[in-house]
Amino acid sequence: MNTAQRFRLSIFVPKSTQSPGSITSNTMSRATQLSQARASVDSKQCMSIYEKWASTYNDDLAESTGNYVAPVLAAQAALRFGSDNPAKAVILDAGCGTGLVGQALSRGGATIIDGVDLSPHMLKVAEKTGAYQNLTVGDLTQPIDALEDFYDIVMCVGTFTHGHVGPDPALREFVRVAKRGGLIVATIIDELWVSGGFKAEVEKLEAEDLIRVVSMELEDYVKGRGDKATLVILEKNSTA
């Protein structure tokens, strides 16, 4: 993987369009929405929460109580390690939500981005960004409807968290759909890195000679809440 050329993105979090008064009055409901999403027990409940939250999700996470920096940090890493020419990189944004990762990648020069997410309502918001070529409803707890060895980069940001998606089969599916020599760039909320089985799954994939670990760093996630996440970058082996 050629990393000689470095791509940099400015840290960008969407500005809120709400007045200060509404920000104050809605802080509790936003915290409740995030807590409910992280407490989801199945995909149906999770989808119901995001159906209600989709229209204000970006504004909510842009506030000081949110400051959701993970999408840009992950996009920076993907473009830094993943391609000399981001305009030609074929990218999958798995769990794309409202399109924050796609927007960050697009500002960095990426033009060929597919997105998949459980929530049709979140995908409608993502479509309006203009960052994606294709958007598909899909459940990351199941096999991904994509060809093997297809994507240069597979992104997954904000999905490996409480009440959402576990490591198996998602990580193995990301490896399957990535090209040989392609990257998997994912955030895993810190509390679940070990206890949720993510560290063990990465080690298993490495032991099977499917991937090598390029980078593994603890980074800010939802900065306004003090949340941290492990930002892991994996490269699919040429023999996988």
Descriptive notes:
InterPro entries: Methyltransf_11, SAM-dependent_MTases_sf. This is S-adenosyl-L-methionine-dependent methyltransferase. It holds the Pfam family Methyltransf_11. Helix content is 37%, strand content 23%. The model is unreliable at 1-28 (pLDDT under 50). It is α/β, with parallel strands linked by helices. The protein has helices at residues 20-38, 43-53, 57-62, 70-82, 100-107, 120-129, 170-177, 190-193, 198-207, and strands spanning 90-94, 112-117, 134-137, 151-160, 178-189, 211-220, 228-236. Strand 6 (211-220) and strand 7 (228-236) form a beta hairpin. Helix 4 (70-82) crosses helix 5. It has 2 domains: 31-64, no CATH class; 67-236, 3-Layer(aba) Sandwich (Rossmann fold), CATH 3.40.50. The chain is built from 9 helices and 7 strands; from the N terminus they run ααααβαβαββαβααββ. A 7-stranded mixed beta sheet has the order 3-2-1-4-5-7-6, with helices on both faces.
Compact summary:
The chain is α/β, with parallel strands linked by helices and 240 residues long. The protein has helices at 20-38, 43-53, 57-62, 70-82, 100-107, 120-129, 170-177, 190-193, 198-207, and strands spanning 90-94, 112-117, 134-137, 151-160, 178-189, 211-220, 228-236.
Number of strands: 7
Structural class computed from helices and strand pairing: alpha/beta
Provide the spatial order of strands within the biggest beta sheet: 3-2-1-4-5-7-6
Which spans have pLDDT < 50 for at least 5 consecutive residues? 1-28
**Apparent shape:** globular
CATH topology grouping of the largest domain: Rossmann fold
Name of the CATH homologous superfamily of the largest domain: Vaccinia Virus protein VP39
- Distance separating the two termini: 15 Å
**Largest sheet, strands/sense/barrel:** 7 strands, mixed
Tell me the CATH architecture of the largest domain.
Answer: 3-Layer(aba) Sandwich
- Share of residues in helices: 25-40%
GO molecular function, one term: polyprenyldihydroxybenzoate methyltransferase activity
Pfam families: Methyltransf_11 (PF08241)
InterPro entries: Methyltransf_11, SAM-dependent_MTases_sf
Domain Methyltransferase type: 92-185
